[in-house]
Design brief:
CATH architecture: Orthogonal Bundle
Strand content: 15-25%
Radius of gyration: 16 Å
Number of helices: 5
Number of strands: 6
CATH superfamily: Winged helix-like DNA-binding domain superfamily/Winged helix DNA-binding domain
CATH class: Mainly Alpha
CATH topology: Arc Repressor Mutant, subunit A
Largest sheet: 3 strands, antiparallel
Shape: globular
């Protein structure tokens, strides 16, 4: 189990003041086994934090590259930390899979996003590579 001091160090390392709400959300992200939606956070945190506060923390985490935002086509943004390190960076993008049956989003950390040559003068800040289909659990 990661300590509050370790979480505070991670936040401070990204230039984020470690408030109680930020520590709670980062702790839940670190425990997550798959990308988490705003509704998931509401359920995980219960009555300890309102939806607007959760959203503000997630937006800050996205701006500071602590998390990246995944658009999986479910009309609900998902948030994810990189499990290969303590937090996500823009350069650490990987493939995701969205199951059309169970609506679960899976993270394929070992599968890098393919290199795409874009025209000169463009500077990408994020990449969203989503594969959609049926997961092994739902195929059974």
């Amino acid at each position: 189990m990661i300590t509050s001091d370790e979480i505070e160090n991670i936040l401070e390392g990204k230039g984020i003041k470690p408030t109680t709400n930020r520590i709670l959300i980062l702790r839940e992200l670190m425990k997550a086994t798959h990308p988490v939606s705003l509704a998931d956070f509401e359920a995980l945190l219960g009555f300890s934090m309102d939806k607007a506060s959760i959203f503000r923390v997630l937006e800050l985490f996205s701006e500071k590259e602590v998390v990246h935002v995944i658009e999986d086509g479910s009309r609900s943004l998902k948030y994810e930390l990189c499990h290969s390190g303590r937090y996500h960076t823009i350069s650490d993008q990987h493939v995701h899979f969205y199951c059309l049956k169970c609506k679960e989003t899976y993270c394929f950390e070992s599968v890098s996003v393919p290199l795409v040559k874009i025209p000169e003068g463009f500077s990408p800040s994020s990449i969203n590579y989503m594969i959609k289909g049926i997961c092994p659990k739902c195929l059974k």
